[in-house]
Amino acid sequence: MAHVRTSLRVSCSFHRCLDIRPPSIKTLLPSRGPSPSSNPKLLPTTSLLLSRHSSNMTTYSIPKTQKAAIVESVGGTLTIKDNHPVKQPEDLKPGECLVQLDCTGVCHTDLHAAKNDWPIPAKTPLIGGHEGVGIVVAIGAHTQDSPVKLGDRVGIKWLAYSCLDCEACRKGKEQVCEKGQYSGFTVDGTFSQYVVSYVSHVTPIPDGIASPEAASILCAGVTVYRAIKYSGANIGDWITIPGAGGGLGHLAIQYANAMGLRVIAIDTGAEKRDLCLKLGAEKWIDFRESKDLVKDIRDATGGPGPHTTVITATSPAAYEQAIDYLRPGATMMVVSLPAQGKLSCDIFFTVTKGITIHGSYVGTRQDAREALDIAARGKVKCYYQLKQLDALKETYEGLEKGTVVGRVVLDMKQ
């Protein structure tokens, strides 16, 4: 590929002016030591000199094209392209930033977006992904009061943008903002080497956590952390985690332990059992081997059942069973999103047992910082397999079959 080098100097006077926010879109239903990335290898092509301080210029090379995984149309095949355009710094709008990715996690939500099997369709053509970690290599001119600077290591989450001014945003529920935009769903995501995001919504990555681990915390970790945080569970309470050996579940075990809860892990298979017990689950129940799952769960708690459940399994049956095994006054945290699932429960016993059903959808910018901080202090560790972008299709197949243990993270530097 022929490389054309040009130089551009942007003075820090561009930094404080105007903040133009993206247009409204249709409201989305709730879907979802130094780090290796602190000095990633940068791809050579267009030379760009950018800095917020004219006395300390930083040089980054921004290529014209990049490698990306793209679904061209609804129901289309996932293809890997080597010549997808990179948005150039001079084309960034105020408030936008360009992030060169080190790595990105793969989430079940990405599979749903690729298949377009949710009630709300994803954009096409689509670059999926919403668990990216990299460095800021450009910031749009006239961006006002940017909380990040060039060279910062940041994360790209599911929530790419919220208005920060509507009732939901003002009440700390920005993830359900009516003007929200979503990485890898309504805007292009992180299955590419470069991604455009917003300075007000990228998440600073703390020291003490490697980029591949941070990637999965940005979605799976934040999602289960917030669910447990708002479940009302107290220290010493029992919590069940259906889907405990998966991407969300294995992190939920650790966050629950960090909050002083007693964990019953529910999943199937020896590999997942070993992982769950290693991570601190007090009890393990294999739902395929159990003759009476409800009884087994109650017995594990000494009789009355758990105080809360955070359902990370994508089977609708996991929700139906919860009403039967939860103790009176318990809370069901609805987290996973089956493609066509309906929440079916016995109304009589939901009422007479005083069960609270609480939908919990990813997390806010503050939730993300808290979840990352806990992980950076060594309380939570993400177990992942590091693969190349070319392995995305086989990863989707593993997610569909339920054979993925922990998380899959893609190396985007190649």
TrEMBL record:
Keywords: Metal-binding, NAD, Oxidoreductase, Zinc. Its EC number is 1.1.1.1. One of its GO terms (molecular function) is alcohol dehydrogenase (NAD+) activity. It is an enzyme of class 1 (oxidoreductase). Its cofactor is Zn(2+). It comes from Cerrena zonata. Residues 75-410 form the Enoyl reductase (ER) domain. Belongs to the zinc-containing alcohol dehydrogenase family. The keyword Metal-binding applies. One of its GO terms (cellular component) is cytoplasm. This is alcohol dehydrogenase. Coiled coil: none annotated. Pfam families: ADH_N, ADH_zinc_N. Gene3D superfamilies: Medium-chain alcohol dehydrogenases, catalytic domain, NAD(P)-binding Rossmann-like Domain.
